[in-house]
Amino acid sequence: MTARITVTRHAPSPDPAQAPPSIDLPGTAKAGAWVPLTLTGFTPGYVDIHIDGTPTYTVRADADGRFARHAVIPAATSPGPHTITAVQGDRSASTRIAIG
Q1: Residue 86 — φ and ψ, nearest 5°?
Q2: What residues does 47 pair with on adjacent strands?
Q3: Cα–Cα distance measured from residue 55 to residue 53, given in angstroms and rounded to the nearest whole number
């Protein structure tokens, strides 16, 4: 008698450290506003958010290396274009935002 065995293969979860880091914010916002912020491609743990090169606050990437919540544009941010950068060790991603 022959027993039949079914084997199901599950692909491993992608390693967040292998994906390129990315940051997504709306293109415009007002100073003091909470805006949707999405980070991907980071490793689980803390990610520093810089505005124009100045460390401003820290968020925490989940087990998949993602952060998808709201973040604040500090009220003291001057009007005009700014670069927002997410930094975690040697991994970083930047985007531009216009503050009105």
Answers
A1: -100, 130
A2: 59
A3: 6
Cβ proximity of 32 and 74 under 8 Å? yes
Contact 91, 41 (CB under 8 A): yes
Beta-carbon neighbour count of residue 47 at 10 Å?
Answer: 24
Centre a 10 Å sphere on the Cβ of residue 39 and count the other Cβ atoms it contains: 24
Instruction: With beta carbons less than 8 A apart as the criterion, state whether 38 and 84 touch.
Output: no
> Alpha carbon 23 to chain centroid distance?
5
pLDDT tens digits along 20-78 = 999 999 999 999 999 999 999 999 999 999 999 999 999 999 999 999 999 999 999 99
Among residues 70, 74, 63, 1, which one has the least CA distance to residue 31?
A: 74
What is the rounded CA–CA span in Å between residue 64 and residue 68? 11
Query: Cα–Cα distances in Å, from 82 out to 31, 51, 56, 95?
Result: 11, 7, 13, 8
pLDDT band at 1 (very low <50, low <70, confident <90, very high): low
